[in-house]
Amino acid sequence: MANYGYPIDEDWTHEEITTVINFLNLVEEANENGVDKEAFLNGYKKFKTVVKSIGEEKRIGREFEAVSDYSIYRTVQKAKAATTKRFKM
Hints:
mainly alpha; UPF0223; 4 helices; BH2638-like_sf; globular; UPF0223 family protein
């Protein structure tokens, strides 16, 4: 795992922060080693319970990509299109 800060909102609860960080870890995993498609999409569904608006998701995506070079949007698109159990960016 890389050593950088995650884009989090200080108004989130500890549980919400954990949910977002777990999803961002899945994005990293998908880009670095490959990840189980179902686990990734379940993580995204949980992420969306915290980050409900498209605008907020885009903001977090931009901030995360700025520090990691990994795109949440492109990774989610690849997961949705994947026809195999695992996928890698």
